[in-house]
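Question (not urgent): is this output format expected?
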Amino acid sequence: MRQFTPKPGSRSAVHILQKPFADISAFNTVVQMLILQNPLGCTSYRTVRKHHPPVVKVRERYTAKFVYENAKKKQIGSSSEVYDSIEGYQDGIHAVISNMANVSAHRGKAKHLPGADHFSVILKCHDPEGELYFLSLARDRITVASYTDDAIRRRVGKWTDGIPALVEELSRIGLRQPKDDRYLHSPRLISGQSP
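Got this back:
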């Protein structure tokens, strides 16, 4: 199971990915799987006059990074653009690269740096036991927050074992998947050694 380190003073835990999601497509695949397939077993619920789905996006941010290079390929400027949807992110990249006013102002050509881009989505989930918690996915980390039952953290940890990009990471650093949660706080897992 993935190492989720509880943060002191709050009920949240974070797992820093050794290998960030490769691109927006890999990231979005995991987010859509969480919403559509509901692998955490979240349940729908009702509040006064409103029905809520089991998992819902609360916020999403996608940041595209750019550099401007002159004819000698020397960097002469940089910028970043923040979007609130994947469509905006993809359209925005094309708009920045083709924006002649930016090219003229920077006196150089815009180049997108996909490896430096940031993605984040916050999902609100309703646990079968009735608790609401948040799952934040970023390009380089997964955070579970605002929970009181440690079973939620363990369930999220087990779920991450089934994500192909994360399973590949586990194999790459030489860790086997533990059969129970005794290893959640194991110093050997933190240091990257096999338990």
